[in-house]
Amino acid sequence: MKKLLLFFGTLLFISLSAQKRGKDYTNILKSKNIYEINAFLRDAHPDDPRRSVLKPKVMDMMREYIKNAHPADQKVKEMQEMLALLKRRPSTKITFDEMNAIIKQKQIAKYKAELAAKQSSIVYTPSNAQNAIVVNTSSTTVAIPDAEAEEFNMLMAVSPTEHKNRTVQILNSLFDNDPMSKECIVLIENKSDCNMIVRMEGVGTTKYRLAVPAHNENSIVVQKGDYLFTSIVCGAQYASQKTIQKPIMVALGSSEPKN
Questions:
Q1: Residue 180 burial (CB < 10 Å; 0-12/13-18/19+)?
Q2: What pTM value is reported for the model?
Q3: β-sheet with 225-233: strand ranges across
Q4: What is the pLDDT of residues 154-184, one digit of tens each?
Q5: Measuring CA to CA, how many Å separate 90 from each of 15, 57, 85, 94, 190?
Q6: Are strands 248-252 and 183-190 parallel, antiparallel or unpaired?
Q7: What are the tens digits of pLDDT across the range 44-91?
Q8: If 0-12 CB within 10 Å is exposed, 13-18 middle and 19+ buried, where does residue 20 land?
Q9: What are phi and psi of 251, to 5 degrees?
Q10: How far apart are CA 47 and CA 38, in angstroms?
């Protein structure tokens, strides 16, 4: 019995040691890695004395990076955003509610611009070539016709009046902070190389369809409730159950779906 307890105790010690090594900040004061120091500031206890040294250090590193970066460097914007956050708070850690608010503000700006322009920001030109999915096999390359191409085109080809009404509805939903509201906005981000239609099936006859072009996003206002989300993402079936009680974002494509 003692040997058994010793065995499990050893396993537990090894496991805890491994977890500790995964985020070992023992030598963090010597670090010259912006992302490593940034991670420490997010994870460390608020009263950790190393914060007073590392926060100004990483801010100086960010300023130096921005100063010497190439004009086309994609990381400059990220560094500027992190620097702005560190000027206002102890770390760049953002809560789920704050992230939701950021997404909400971006959507409001987008749809306000669309209303001002009196047209959709998405321009889609129907083409058989664009609506084909190419699959590479060991022997041949097969073009699979997109069975949803016609439906996708139909959903995208809304009249200016219908588009304006839909945009106003989405904006109203974005501005609506009433917890008793029966409707909610769903944002779908398509990270794939293929156009897609996301289907949302609720209780009874409650159903919605949303066309989302490749590498783009689209929004829809739905009744709050439980839904089965389905789609075909570049030939692959996607299905997920989601409970919609507040605005959510669903990303589909190259990375794992998130909500």
A1: exposed
A2: 0.49
A3: 207-212, 196-201, 225-233, 236-244
A4: 888 766 666 667 677 676 666 666 667 788 8
A5: 31, 13, 8, 11, 33
A6: parallel
A7: 898 999 999 999 999 999 999 999 999 888 889 889 989 998 998 898
A8: exposed
A9: -105, 125
A10: 16
Quick one: tokens of 60? 């100086």
Q: Which amino acid is at 100?
A: N
Q: Are 226 and 200 in contact (CB under 8 A)?
A: no
The domains located in the chain, with CATH, are: 25-93 (no CATH), 97-252 (2.60.40.10)
C-alpha distances out from residue 155 to 68, 196, 199, 204, 210, Å: 46, 11, 12, 22, 7
> Contact at 8 Å (CB) between 41 and 54?
yes
Q: How far apart are CA 230 and CA 209, in angstroms?
A: 10
Backbone angles phi, psi at 241, to 5 degrees: -90, 135
